[in-house]
Amino acid sequence: MELKAAESFHANLLDRIGQAVIMVDANRKITFWNSASEKLFGYTKNQALGQDMVPLLSGTDAKEETEIITKWLNSKEAVAAEYLAQRKDDSLVPVLVNCSPVYGDNGVYLGSAVSATDITEQKIMEKDMTVALEYLSANIDKIEELNEKLKVVGSLTRHDVRNKLSSVTSYTYILKKRHYDMVDVVDGLDKMSRAVNDSMKIFELASTYEQVGMEALVDLDVGKAVDGAVEMFPSLPFKVINDCHGLIVHADSLLRQLLFNFMDNTRKYGKTTQNVWIYHQGTPAGDLRLIYEDDGMGIPINCKDQLFRQGFSTGGSTGFGLFLSKKIVQVYGWSICEEGEAGKGTKFVMTIPR
Question: Which long-range contacts (CB under 8 A, 24 or more apart) does 97-106 make?
Answer without folding.
Answer: 97/72, 99/72, 99/73, 101/76, 101/77, 102/23
